[in-house]
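Figure 2 data, in text form.
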Amino acid sequence: MPRPAVVLLSGGLDSATAAAIAGSEGFDLFALSIDYGQRHRQELDAARRVAQSFGVRRHVVLAIDLGQFGASALTAAIDVPKSRTADEMATGIPITYVPARNTVFLSLALAYAETVAAADIFLGVNALDYSGYPDCRPEYVAAFERLANLATKAGVEGTLKFHVHAPLIHMTKAEIIRRGVELRVDFALTHSCYDPSPAGLACGQCDACLLRRKGFDEAGLADPLEYAT
């Protein structure tokens, strides 16, 4: 009988690859996507497409509104940075950081996991080709795993020992893409852009687009997405 696992599915190529890895390891997938008040719907549409392509056992799209707090270009009327260099992306924490987002997301995934008796949670965070987010680091993932086992009935009673899997955390974007291709992830279903056009096309110039395009270039593969620029 396959073991259940909860996968945080954003609709991007990283989370899609993390889900594919979980499936390749024999887990029965329960997907969780968060409608957190982000300024566009494309990533949620992509998450639904990806979940359907994997045939997950159940896909929950949970609505919360981090936009009530603001302070991020992804949830408030703040311009998304464009055309930043690799050095600029490697310096500081960008305005696209959503305060405590991964902690909120993992807490919800933990609640979901406890209800379906899943000891395993997968997420697609990455500490190499990323934009400086503090909640994408290995020490953060390890700290949350400790918290999960301290803060839950299942953890305290010993019925589950939670493990937070971040299989992409030490991979470059090119390595992630190559692994996804090996696992037959359809990257045409995914969406990475922070600031898509009114027609839904990826902008091509935000940090997420630049890192994605760089990854495909370095992997020697064609990105199946159409870009506005």
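Caption note: The chain has eight helices and five strands.
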